[in-house]
Design goal:
5 strands; mainly beta; 1 helix; single chain; 5-stranded antiparallel β-sheet
Length: 115
């Protein structure tokens, strides 16, 4: 097989293998997302964890949380969007309990309370 023919076969295969990378949990101490339920079907979950970052401008909070059994998630660090005003009383380091809706891509907090 000539080099051109080999390139004509190998190049499309290599390009196809370079799809969008799998989502990754934030932070060096994050659990593996392998086996996570990443379904686009809306689901709800509950968890406990600690606030590691708050972005009031975007309404997002990053939580280092334990396993979320309803969704089959391991412990990890990830960012959730909050309702307006729901993050006002939180600070980095707070221990929290939270509930959220998951649409397959984004976690939207439905409640978050300090412990």
């Amino acid at each position: 097989m000539s080099q051109r023919m080999l390139l004509a076969v190998a190049l499309p295969l290599a390009v196809a293998a370079c799809g969008k990378p799998a989502p990754q949990a934030a932070g060096p101490d994050s659990g593996s997302m392998a086996g996570m339920n990443m379904s686009a079907e809306a689901k709800s979950g509950r968890g406990s964890g600690a606030v590691t970052k708050i972005d009031a401008a975007s309404g997002e909070v990053t939580l280092q949380h334990g396993p979320v059994t309803e969704l089959g998630w391991p412990a990890m660090t990830m960012t959730f969007s909050g309702k307006p005003g729901s993050l006002d009383r939180l600070k980095v380091g707070d221990k929290v309990d939270f509930a959220f809706d998951w649409d397959g891509k984004t976690g939207r907090l439905t409640s978050i309370t300090k412990r």
